[in-house]
Design a protein that fits this description.
With 282 residues, this protein is α+β, with helices and mostly antiparallel strands. It contains three helices and twelve strands, in the order αααββββββββββββ. It has a six-stranded antiparallel β-sheet with strand order 1-12-11-10-6-7, with no helix packed on it. It has a six-stranded mixed β-sheet with strand order 3-2-4-5-8-9, with no helix packed on it. The longest helix has 44 residues.
């Protein structure tokens, strides 16, 4: 065979074409591998930034049951395990947000007008954050009457309830379920309106109010209750005519929370149930 014959040239051209095909295939294979690597890195970065990955990292030292409960129900905070991670939400409350027994709320009453006190779950003058209390559970309207009296000022108090309330008046021995609306008067006069009348209500024999959820057939709260004591104190105030007369300041004291808050089981909305001590019954 001649060194530069047509046959030799044809064979060299076929080898060159074969080499070009192999080079193209190798370049394409490398490009596919690079694309796969880039996609895997992007997927891994997205996974690491997800909330699920963060939660698993925080709970990696917890047992398997604790992890599953956190992933399945993020609405409940579990503080029964040492390594629990609370679910953060703008409505989550802490101990300082909850009322405590012994707290006293004082109210002065304008001579013309009235004072409205509302005890509720997440709304009102007194906020409980309790599952046993409704919003606007109890409303107390206090307004002066017989304003022209120059010796002492009388008052009418109206109680309106949305939830269950047990009431013990100063002259009663037992708690009775409050009607939807009840009225009393603080006065030394007799207005013949048919309402219970008290010259004053002191701390020794206050008007006692228990607020809670469902009642049993015995007339007791099944889960728990808040007990408030309502009483008055005398003050001397100058009238528009320049004289002084006896007026009242009104007080609500949170006397008892029975059996107490179970902050370990508060909901994501910041509502806290009662402890399930003694079966959760009173």
């Amino acid at each position: 065979m001649k060194p530069y014959s047509l046959e030799k040239i044809r064979i060299i051209e076929e080898k060159m074409i074969t080499y070009e095909i192999w080079v193209f295939a190798l370049v394409l294979f490398v490009a596919v591998l690079l694309l796969i690597v880039v996609m895997q890195k992007l997927a891994l970065a997205k996974f690491k930034s997800s909330e699920l990955f963060k939660l698993k990292q925080n709970l990696k030292s917890a047992d398997k049951d604790s992890i599953e409960s956190q992933l399945e129900d993020p609405n409940i905070i579990d503080v029964h395990t040492i390594t629990q991670t609370p679910v953060h939400h703008e409505r989550i409350v802490t101990g300082k947000d909850l009322p405590e027994p012994g707290m006293i709320y004082k109210y002065s009453i304008p001579n013309e007008g009235k004072r409205i006190i509302v005890i509720g779950q997440r709304e009102g003058n007194i906020v409980t954050h309790s599952t046993e209390i409704l919003d606007h559970h109890l409303r107390i309207d206090i307004f002066p009457i017989d304003v022209e009296n120059k010796e002492y000022l009388s008052y009418q108090i109206e109680f309106r309830r949305e939830g269950k309330v047990l009431c013990q008046l100063p002259n009663q021995k037992d708690f009775l379920e409050m009607e939807m609306k009840e009225t009393i008067q603080i006065t030394k006069s007799d207005f013949e309106d048919g309402f219970p009348i008290f010259p004053s209500i002191n701390t020794e024999t206050p008007l006692r109010l228990r607020l809670g959820g469902r009642l049993s057939v015995e007339g007791k709260f099944k889960i728990g209750f808040f007990e408030f004591h309502f009483y008055t104190k005398d003050i001397l105030e100058r009238t528009s005519g320049g004289t002084k007369r006896i007026e009242k300041q009104f007080y609500l004291k949170l006397y008892k929370i029975f059996p107490g808050y179970d902050t370990a089981r508060q909901s994501r909305d910041g509502v806290v149930p009662m402890l399930e001590r003694f079966g959760g019954k009173v």
